[in-house]
Write a structure and sequence with these properties.
The protein is an alpha/beta fold and 285 residues long. The protein contains 10 helices and 9 strands. The longest helix has 14 residues.
Length: 285
């Protein structure tokens, strides 16, 4: 059983539509795929309608959070998408994305980069705009060779020359909100040092005490030594261990199913969730 619990579509910063994503997941030999767009559930209906037979969809989202002054992402699974408090917080985060992105475009212009807001809108194509869209614009302009190369102090990394902070939910509050909405929480790529500062292990322990369910260990941004350290940490804290691709379509080189989650862990996630259920494929449209 092959399970990938972290994927993005055009509803945020991926390049596959939600329907294309689930079809590609089936072609990649996955049995279970989670749609975890940034701060939105907008793609869930389309993905569910197109779900091929034999593939199960886990509805989720990747929430933008902050703790100890450090940005972090929280994967939330199987929560009630209409729960008012969590919905209001997601909308608050999303509403801040456009003015933040416009401010980053302005900073890039000050640095001599001729990026335009129209270019960003075209690349985002109606998705929840974020740094990967701006990074793609830098690739188009020949400023950097790849999207990943834009996430450096020179450009878009946390604290970088063109970086502008956005509204982010307090991580402890995010866990509380997701739990209240019946969901399960997993700390996404917690040791991805190339993205900027990371959350200390002592804080991860506090997050575990507050109800964090798991940490994403097997991820493209974690080398083997880091995975071993995180797996040991999860064992010490009683946290679930997940593995995922963090697939973004052609925006990143990682393939669907590049890292996967153990079926027993997946079963435990389902057992803990009360806000929503996995969606079985019925052939799609």
């Amino acid at each position: 059983m092959r399970i990938d619990l972290h994927c993005h579509s055009t509803a945020s910063d991926g390049t596959d539509s939600p329907a294309e994503l689930v079809r590609n997941a089936a072609r990649a030999g996955l049995d279970v795929v989670a749609l975890t767009d940034h701060d939105t559930t907008r793609g869930h209906a389309e993905a569910s309608a197109a779900l091929p037979e034999g593939l199960t969809l886990v509805p989720g989202a990747e929430l933008s959070c902050r703790t100890d002054g450090v940005s972090m992402h929280l994967l939330a699974y199987l929560f009630d998408p209409e729960e008012p408090a969590l919905l209001a917080e997601r909308e608050l985060v999303r509403d801040d994305r456009v003015p933040r992105a416009r401010a980053m475009v302005a900073r890039l212009n000050e640095l001599g980069v001729p990026v335009t807001w129209e270019q960003i809108e075209r690349i985002a194509a109606g998705g929840s705009v974020g740094r990967p869209h701006i990074a793609s614009a830098l690739v188009e302009l020949g400023v950097v060779p790849t999207v990943g190369d834009a996430f450096t102090p020179e450009w878009l990394a946390d604290g970088g020359r063109a970086y502008v902070p956005k509204h982010e939910t307090d991580a402890f509050e995010a866990i509380r909100l997701v739990k209240h909405a019946g969901g399960v929480t997993v700390f996404a790529h917690p040791a991805a040092v190339k993205r900027g500062r990371t959350v200390p292990e002592a804080t991860i322990a506090k997050l575990a005490e507050a109800g964090l369910d798991g940490i994403e260990v097997d991820h493209m941004d974690h080398d083997p030594a880091t995975r071993t350290r995180l797996r040991d940490l999860a064992g010490d804290l009683g946290l679930l261990v997940t593995g995922s691709s963090d697939y973004h379509g052609s925006r990143k080189t990682v393939a669907l199913g590049a890292n996967t989650t153990d079926p027993e862990v997946y079963g435990e996630i389902i057992r803990r969730a009360t806000g929503a259920f996995p969606v079985p494929g019925t052939g799609g449209i």
